[in-house]
Amino acid sequence: MDASGVRERVTELPSEPGVYQFLADDAVLYVGKAVDLRSRVRSYADPRSDRIRRMVRRADGVDFAVTDTETQALLLEANLIKRHQPKYNVRLKDDKSYPLVQLTDHPVPRIDVTRDPEEGATVFGPYTDKGRVDVVVKALRETYGVRGCSDHKYSGRDRPCLDYEMGLCTAPCTGEISEEAYREDADSVVRFFEGETGVLADPLRRAMEEAAQNREFERAANLRDKLDAVESFHGGGGEAVSGRSREREVDVLGAAIEGDTATVARLHSERGQLVDRSRHRLQAPEGEDRVAEVLSAFIPQYYAERRLPDALLLSERPEDGELLAWLEAEGVGVRVPGAGREAKLVELALKNARRGPARGDELGALADALGIPRPTRIEGFDVSHAQGKAVVGSDVCFVDGSAEKSDYRRKKLPDRNDDYANMRELIRWRAERAVDGRDDRPDPDLLLVDGGDGQLGAARDALREVGWDVPAIALAKDEELVITDSGVYNWPSDAPHLHVLQRVRDEAHRFAVSYHQTLRDDVKTVLDDVPGVGPATRRNLLRRFGSVDNIRTASAGDLRDVPGVGEKTATALKRRLSGGQ
Fold first, then answer.
1. Residue 394 phi, psi dihedral angles, 5° rounding
2. How far apart are CA 126 and CA 280, in angstroms?
3. What are the tens digits of pLDDT across the range 482-494?
4. What are 505-522's pLDDT values in tens digits?
5. 22-31, 255-264, 296-305, 539-548: lowest mean pLDDT where?
6. In a designed cystine with 375, which of 91, 273, 445, 540 is the match (CB 3.0 to 4.6 A)?
7. Is there a contact between 185 and 170 (Cβ–Cβ < 8 Å)?
């Protein structure tokens, strides 16, 4: 389209607020907003940059939509950019989230590591090293006995679960510790995350020294490693985020440009506590004031589907009048601080932005690698059991690379020690519900099976039998091979499209194991009725054999090798677990 073509099309546009789209073969090249559509599109007869000039030259048409207000145009533009990802817009691609630690809003709070904290939880983080976080959380649980089980598993128990026997929980569920005493321990955990390292480091150091004096050198080494992780956990940056603010939620945005790529780093603070951090990549614009233009593009696109904070702290002030008017109308304070604590937060965001480009479009890369349309919605499946007992299946859902926990489902399956048959039944259950219209969730773009060629073959058999046409692949754990109907892929370990599959697979595995353990714990109490088996012996048996089923099949000689199990106890175990009295 040349200048005369633009001017000809302009005569058909109204002088009202709205959104316009430049098209080529019905594909969207560019989306823009305007207070006056006719006036704004007319300016493209004399493009303001080489990039826009190339866009207009490629275009063969202009489409538009009228809105009632400039604010409606702003939000419609953001949604269209996110939907169509037009080549010539400054467009956002969401980055991953980092792990957080939460203590839930419960009279007896639960601690866990999560990327999606619950409403009302006390949240700490984010942290970049999940391995260190896991070590610290386990050390806290061993020291203070804070529970890690779900509220469903916590309620209605009459006996402590395995975590109590392993020293990871003080079992408030059955009154082994009072709620008041438990909350004091939970407060100690909060003090640690607020920076009081000695709350955990001191008891670990004492235990390490005691183990060394008792010549328990392996245990002392393990405690030393935990102590190292604990003492290095609070690594700085606290001055910038430790204050308190009257504004409940504040987002800090810093933007940096390198070549043709822009990166926006976002820090999220609640009540003065930094609770989230993310980085996002955009295509860098041309011309002057590029950082301001990046922020003008990022803000409406990012917050189009998210709740706005009480305030935005920015590295530069956007010049988009409609954007600033929208934020003001929504009650959002916009500041570009020059000094003080807020300036330190902006500088921290800029340091994150200058680390380089954020993660790219991993789902787009996955689509290219597999030769399928971009899989926005992926469901992952796994099966968990103990030698064919307490068999369960998990169905987790990820949308745009992030867990959609409200769409998780789980299924109790018949007891049998056949992974292929179990996977076939799980996929058949999902497929039949979809085909019959009994599942209220949208159909996924891709199914991911945790396993190898056998599990994938079983899944495909179920899909074919039911007639549900959804592509399915598998991800094997040992060598991280991606198995499809067209072949096997061995992608590099740093491939972003492999990472998204690993997140789905690992979450499906975690969800299945969690449900299996819930069912398994309900049958472990059979050991409590065996004469001679107290808490310590029960713990030793479960540590040695892993499950009641394994104890049942063990020989009397193997049982006698467990500390606390003599000949009489071994005989009682065999008799009781085999169904005798």
1. -120, 150
2. 16
3. 999 888 898 887 7
4. 989 998 888 888 776 655
5. 539-548
6. 445
7. yes
What is the DSSP annotation of 184-199? HHHHHHHHHHTT-THH
| Torsion-angle region of 67 (φ positive above 0: left; ψ -120 to 50: alpha; else: beta) | beta
- For tokens 């299946």, name the residue: 393
Distance CA 115, CA 67 (A): 37
What pLDDT sits at residue 435? 93
Q: What is the pLDDT of residues 67-80, one digit of tens each?
A: 767 776 776 677 67
DSSP of 49-100, one letter per residue? SHHHHHHHHH--EEEEEE-SSHHHHHHHHHHHHHHH--TTS--EEPPPP--E
CA separation for the pair 64, 80 (Å, rounded): 12
Phi, psi (deg, nearest 5) at residue 114: -150, 160
342: which residues sit within 8 A by CB, 6+ positions away?
313, 335
Residue type, 271: R
Q: What are phi and psi of 363, to 5 degrees?
A: -70, -35
Length of the chain equals 581
pTM: 0.38
Provide the residue type at 439 as one letter: D
Full strand arrangement of the beta sheet holding 333-335: 92-93, 273-283, 261-270, 249-258, 311-314, 333-335
CB neighbours of 330 closer than 8 A, spacing ≥ 6? 308
Structure tokens at 540: 């030793």
- Angle 33-49-92 from CA coordinates, rounded to 5°: 50
In sign, the C-alpha dihedral spanning 333, 338, 341, 342 is positive
Question: Are the C-beta atoms of 101 and 193 separated by less than 8 Å?
Answer: yes
In sequence order, what are the residues at sequence separation of 6 or more whose Cβ sits closer than 8 angstroms to the Cβ of residue 278? 94, 95, 96, 97, 98, 265, 266
User: 3-state class of 206 per DSSP?
Assistant: helix
d(CA 163, CA 171): 8
Beta-ladder partners of 28: 23
Two tokens, residue 251? 């987002």
- Whole-angstrom CA distances from 514 to 94, 294, 555 are 29, 43, 29
Task: Note the pLDDT tens digit of each residue in 295-320.
Answer: 998 998 888 657 889 999 998 888 88
Separation of CA 164 from chain center: 28
Nearest to 574 by CA among 559, 564, 563, 562: 559
Preceding peptide of 126 cis, ω within 30°: yes
Question: From the CB of residue 247, how many other CB atoms can be counted at a distance below 10 Å?
Answer: 14
- The vertex-317 CA angle with 313 and 323, nearest 5°, equals 95
Which of helix, strand or coil describes residue 215? Answer: coil
Question: 318-327, 388-397, 569-578: which range is least confident on average?
Answer: 569-578
Q: What is d(CA 272, CA 311) in angstroms, rounded to the nearest whole number? A: 12
490 strand-pairing partners: none
* CA 94 to each of CA 70, 82, 190, 543, 577: distance values in angstroms, whole numbers, following the listed order: 26, 10, 31, 43, 53
Q: What is the DSSP letter of 44?
A: G
Q: Distance between CA 286 and CA 90 in Å, rounded?
A: 10
